[in-house]
Amino acid sequence: MALWRMVVRDIAPMHPARAKPEPQPVSQKIKEDPKPMKALSAAVTVPERELSFGAMLARPVVRRTRAQDLRIGVRAPGLDDTSWKRLSRGNLKVDAKLDLHGYIVQDAFDRLIEFMHRAKARNWRCVEVVTGLGSGATSGLIRRELPLWLQRADIRPMVLAVVHPHAANHGSVRILLRTKRK
């Protein structure tokens, strides 16, 4: 632990506003405020080994960075200008189209997953998914769920960008997919 502190002592956070102070180990907290622990220590004795384990649990959790969240109509990092302009202007040829009108949400989800895996197997570059705007009491459930479905771990690596083919129609999306080089 001391070696690690020596390694990271000169490192400054990239985002100081988000940096959190290191929590104190449990053993230091006990030493600072012994009054509540006197009553507890009379009833239960805690070995030092458990305190160090508790200190490890109190440390902040380091999480892996997530891949860029997918947002409709927002250019993803790493996408070249030409492909983005062609996709966003609707000039990119659509290889296949999936129409989800009239499906219940679970069936639409199953069809989308199957369609995306077929698109990957056939090395399609651009596909269109029509969800419709929705009507009735549960208006547009498929349309609202589609971005979440595209975030799934098995689908997200396939997708480069998602746009609405026409600004006034949010009932369909065009999806630019990663392709295998030939």
Automatic annotation (TrEMBL):
<protein>
    <submittedName>
        <fullName>DNA mismatch repair protein MutS</fullName>
    </submittedName>
</protein>
<dbReference type="InterPro" id="IPR002625">
    <property type="entry name" value="Smr_dom"/>
</dbReference>
<dbReference type="Pfam" id="PF01713">
    <property type="entry name" value="Smr"/>
</dbReference>
<dbReference type="InterPro" id="IPR036063">
    <property type="entry name" value="Smr_dom_sf"/>
</dbReference>
<feature type="domain" description="Smr">
    <location>
        <begin position="98"/>
        <end position="178"/>
    </location>
</feature>
